[in-house]
Design goal:
By secondary structure, this protein is an all-alpha fold. It has helices at 2-6, 31-36, 51-99. Helices cover 58% and strands 0% of the residues. It is rod-shaped and about 85 Å long.
């Protein structure tokens, strides 16, 4: 997960086996891109920003956040699985020592 947020501006995205399908030219948004993004003004006769451009950008941000949260959730599940396996192994080892007479 660390690499997801620390990637440099020109480094390509690295996708793992669990990543969602995207074209090979797609590069996820970096935080600096979100902070520096500027939108064009709306067309003649309208005030504000171009709604289509803003909606497109928000969709892209939402997709990248979804991917980040999915990776974070996967990482947390894997961490919990490893901790449980370690606890079981430690309990088994302690029980073996008790049975062998080392803890009397």
């Amino acid at each position: 997960m660390r690499g997801f947020f620390r990637r440099g501006r020109n480094e390509p995205a690295q996708r793992g086996p669990g990543s969602c399908y995207r074209s090979s030219t797609y590069v996820p948004l970096a935080p600096w891109q979100v902070r520096e993004r500027r939108f064009r003004s709306a067309r003649f006769g309208r005030r504000g920003l171009d709604p289509a451009e803003v909606a497109e950008f928000l969709d892209r941000v939402a997709a990248d956040l979804t991917a980040a949260y999915r990776a974070l959730g996967d990482s947390r599940q894997e961490t919990a699985r490893i901790k449980d396996a370690l606890r079981r192994w430690q309990s088994e080892q302690a029980q073996e020592r008790v049975n062998a007479g080392r803890y009397r």
